[in-house]
Design a protein that fits this description.
Layout lengths: L1 E6 L3 H12 L4 E5 L24 H15 L2 E4 L2 E9 L6 E7 L4 E9 L3 E3 L7 H4 L4 E2 L2 H4 L7 E5 L3 H11 L4 E6 L8 H8 L4 E5 L1 E7 L6 E6 L5 E5 L2 E4 L3 E3 L29 E3 L11 H19 L4
Parallel strand pairs: 1-2, 1-6, 2-3, 6-17, 8-15, 9-10, 9-15, 10-11
Antiparallel strand pairs: 4-5, 5-6, 7-16, 12-13, 13-14
Helix pairs in contact: 1-2, 1-7, 5-6
């Protein structure tokens, strides 16, 4: 039996693992995709304390190495649920069983859910058919496929603008489609894109439909004020319109808000004693690497105290 089971291997989960081990608690991190989380797809990160600039993958590697050095166990698998088990005789508190789709079973005294969020879709007909055939969510992964071509980015926040900055150095022409009348990302990113000769920023529009047989060849966008439509020929479209929290398997143990995020306070607790949440899956105003790491530290300390029967 582990003292603490951590579901999710992004910055929140890995920070929690480091803090849990420093509290001398046996710890396992279970991750269904890439250890390091969404940050691994960022080509350049400049707002992590202690680093002037580094890639997301470099930062993730440092987190993983740090956790390994502390003695954290790592397991790959998709967690399908948590159930409460018989209480321990020493303190009378329930323990937990975490199960994965691959058939693995883990027992723990406390659980930290740090599952993060996945890329939000546009929700248009045929979208899933175009994913991998012109629609992408990761410029660092797929940008090179569109070298010297015409592509688009949907979104105007930091993630979208980071994608656009990378793509602007690869493609012949880049369109940015933003549904608001203005971009919401950092000013430095906006300035870089405004200075690029091959970038056209189009605000106040939404994507209405995709074009192309089998592979994407363009999009139809509409003006959100006038309704006027216009077609754009594209070979690639990078969608960066936000994230969807991955909390579905845990609805029996944690309360969710209207947007599906774990309804938790700054102490990272849930309605189930012994289960904690951290990172982008939690209800919060700011979702950055720094705040995810802070959540991981808070949740780990709380989970360690719980495992010891001190709270």
């Amino acid at each position: 039996m582990y003292d603490i089971i951590i579901i999710g291997g992004g910055p929140a989960g890995l920070t929690a693992a480091v803090y849990a081990r420093r509290a001398n608690k046996t710890t396992v991190v279970i991750e269904k995709e890439t250890f390091g989380g969404q940050i691994t797809f960022s080509p350049c990160v400049e707002n992590i304390p202690g680093f002037v600039s580094l890639s997301g993958s470099e930062f993730a590697e440092k987190l993983v190495d740090q956790a390994i050095a502390q003695g954290v166990d790592f397991e790959s698998g998709e967690v399908t649920g948590i159930r409460e088990a018989a209480p321990e005789e020493e303190n009378g508190r329930n323990t937990f069983v975490v199960e994965t789709a691959e058939g693995a079973v883990f027992e723990g005294r406390a659980v930290i859910i740090a599952t993060g969020a996945k890329h939000r879709r546009l929700g248009l007909p045929g979208e899933e058919d175009y994913v991998g055939n012109g629609i992408s969510f990761c410029a660092v992964c797929d940008g090179a496929f569109y070298k010297d071509q015409t592509v688009g980015v949907v979104g105007g926040g930091n993630s979208a603008l980071q994608e656009a900055v990378l793509l602007s150095g690869l493609v012949e022409k880049l369109y940015i489609f933003q549904d608001l009348p203005y971009l919401t990302g950092e000013k430095k990113l906006q300035e870089k894109l405004e200075a690029a000769d091959n970038v056209e920023i189009i605000t106040g529009v939404g994507v209405k439909a995709f074009k192309g047989e089998g592979e994407l060849s363009g999009v139809t966008v509409y003006d959100r004020t006038t309704g006027e439509e216009k077609d754009y020929d594209l070979t690639g479209l990078f969608v960066a319109i936000g994230l969807v929290p991955q909390n579905e398997p845990f609805t029996a143990q944690i309360a969710l808000n209207d947007w599906g995020y774990a309804d938790s306070d700054e102490f990272c607790t849930t309605k189930t004693p012994g289960i904690f949440v951290a990172g982008d899956c939690r209800s919060k105003r700011i979702r950055q690497v720094a705040t995810a790491a802070a959540d991981g530290a808070v949740a780990a300390i709380a989970a360690a105290n719980y495992a010891e029967g001190r709270v």
